[in-house]
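quick q for whoever's on today - can somebody do inverse folding on this one?? i tried earlier but teh output was garbage lol. tokens:
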């Protein structure tokens, strides 16, 4: 008998695989055309970095990096739909056929500041020199306009061995720019590569410099690690190399990776320097409150389904149980309490007043705790018994 479930899975797996191949091929064709357009004007240009690395591995890239001897100004003259990002000096972003291209002029980075940004760069006319300033060997692979791969610094060997090595002296590379430490962990996680022993040692030697890296950058890189399918390995690397301390992640060993990114942060104790929007802060604080107490009708009513589901993930409680409990709530807002303000006034023979609030708070809790039915007659009796004398 044919197992249609398995047959369907094989079919859908094959289908997704074919789609990825088509996307990579289309992106490649567009990229080669971009190179041709630059070279037609007498410059040289290569695809470099992530796209070539991922192409060899059969992985889809989000964008394409191009290295050229044309200056940003010359690139902008060739492509009239280009924009110059303020953030990175000397790079032009192009959008061609829905693909994003980061075009950077060959350069030498002369001086670095605060273990991060180069404060002085010099445009050069030499691809090899440009490749030497890059972070990892696997990120130095290039492709020319004919689709041929150029491997001047032996990046392919690292890809074949699934290992990450820096270009040149590791200690120097991490000292120059501490962001590279997190990039190393991120790539290792995402590609499921090892860090060479040399890289590990250099990371340990330079990890304190992470304290000086902006919280924004740290958060961005950490989130890419945490949401990866292979996040567990990334967290193991962070712990093995002792990066949790300089990153001010105080209980990384307790991280809950099963949740979405908000749930992941909620399972961590981190420095207050990490930037979150006020809404994110509110959700994280509520999730923590639920995790530290319990999921009850009150927590479901007060904070809604999402916060409780995230808390359930962290607490190891089945989400379906929480959804069912939410659907069974006797009330979902104050409006669904089956007594009107008018009936309360008539029952107590009192005028409206601030005492209403206390009564409603009490009714809400009693109904949610299952101590009172949401039924007008019963609520009226309860109010008479508890609120008819005094204030
Ligand atoms: P992905 O785009 O998948 O994150 P990528 O390798 O393309 O990976 P980018 O941040 O797009 O990474 O950078 C493009 C290339 O620029 C890298 O491949 C690398 O050669 C170089 N590069 C980027 N950041 C650094 C850095 N901090 N130090 C040295 N080289 C870098
Ligand atoms: Mg890239």
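ok took a stab at it. sequence:
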């Amino acid at each position: 008998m044919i197992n249609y479930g398995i047959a369907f899975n094989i079919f859908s797996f094959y289908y997704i695989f074919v789609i990825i191949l088509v996307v990579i091929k289309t992106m490649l064709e567009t990229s080669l055309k971009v190179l041709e357009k630059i070279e037609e004007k007498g410059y040289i240009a290569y695809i470099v970095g992530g796209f070539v690395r991922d192409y060899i591995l059969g992985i889809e890239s989000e964008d394409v990096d191009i290295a050229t001897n044309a200056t940003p100004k010359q690139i902008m003259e060739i492509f009239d739909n280009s924009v110059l990002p303020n953030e990175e000096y000397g790079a032009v972003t192009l959008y061609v056929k829905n693909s994003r291209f980061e075009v950077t002029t060959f350069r030498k980075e002369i001086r670095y500041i605060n273990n991060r940004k180069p404060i002085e760069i010099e445009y050069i006319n030499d691809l090899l020199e440009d490749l030497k300033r890059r972070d990892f060997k696997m990120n130095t692979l290039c492709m020319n306009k004919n689709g041929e791969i150029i491997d001047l610094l032996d990046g392919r060997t690292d890809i074949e061995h699934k290992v990450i090595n820096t270009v040149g002296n590791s200690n120097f590379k991490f000292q120059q720019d501490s962001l590279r430490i997190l990039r190393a962990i991120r790539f290792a996680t995402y590609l499921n590569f090892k860090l060479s022993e040399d890289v590990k040692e250099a990371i340990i030697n330079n990890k304190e410099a992470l304290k000086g890296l902006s919280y924004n950058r740290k958060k961005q890189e950490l989130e890419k690690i945490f949401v990866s399918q292979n996040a567990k390995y990334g967290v193991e690397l962070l712990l093995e190399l002792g990066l949790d301390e300089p990153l001010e992640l105080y209980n990384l060993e307790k991280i809950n990776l099963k949740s979405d990114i908000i749930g992941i942060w909620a399972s961590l104790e981190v420095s207050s320097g990490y930037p979150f929007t006020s809404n994110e802060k509110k959700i994280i604080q509520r999730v923590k409150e639920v995790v530290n107490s319990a999921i009850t009708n009150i927590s479901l009513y007060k904070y809604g389904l999402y916060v409780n589901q995230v808390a359930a993930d962290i607490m190891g409680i089945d989400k379906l149980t929480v959804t069912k409990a939410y659907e069974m709530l006797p009330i979902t807002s104050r409006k669904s309490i089956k007594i009107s303000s008018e009936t309360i006034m008539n029952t107590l023979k009192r005028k409206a007043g601030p005492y209403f609030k206390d009564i409603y708070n009490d009714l809400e809790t009693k109904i949610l705790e299952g101590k009172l039915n949401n039924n007008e007659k019963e609520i009226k009796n309860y109010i008479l018994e508890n609120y008819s004398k005094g204030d």
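fwiw DSSP finds 17 helices and ten strands in the chain. also The pocket of adenosine-5'-triphosphate (ligand 1) is lined by residues 49-50, 65, 134-135, 139, 177, 179-180 (CB under 6 Å). so keep that in mind when u check it
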